[in-house]
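Researcher: We're teaching a course module on how sequence relates to structure. For the next exercise, students receive a sequence and then see the predicted structure as tokens, so they can try to spot secondary structure elements on their own. Here is the exercise chain.
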Amino acid sequence: MDFLWYLLIAVLSGVFAGMGMGGGTFLIPLITLLMNVEQNVAQCLNLLVFVPMAIITIIIYAKQKLIDFKNWWIVSIPACVVSTLGVLLAVNLSGKVLKIIFGGFIAIIGIVQIIVLIIKFIKQKKKNVKMAIK
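Model: And here is the predicted structure for the students to work with:
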């Protein structure tokens, strides 16, 4: 039965990742809360899932000529260095601390998304008022 739960969580995570929401945002809480997986293991699993998805994404984007291969290193090298440092830090933190950090990160993302949504709504409202006046 656990296999079916893991499969369902994997499918949901993939669907959300495909929608641009970030599969780990759902994968990590779901497997820690529903499947009682430790936070460290959940984050490691998320990173393992990310690697093949990133490779597939690079191939698809490259075929569509959406990657600037001249300047790839400007983002890629710092991202790899910071990711490696993050992994080394995470290995030395307790699961409880990781949960707090991850929860705070998700909360900040949620707050930023709400603010962006409000700003878009206000701009659209102003645009509609200007159109009505003309």
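Model: If you want an answer key for the exercise: The first helix runs from residue 2 to 18. Helices lie at 2-18, 24-33, 39-63, 72-91, 95-133.
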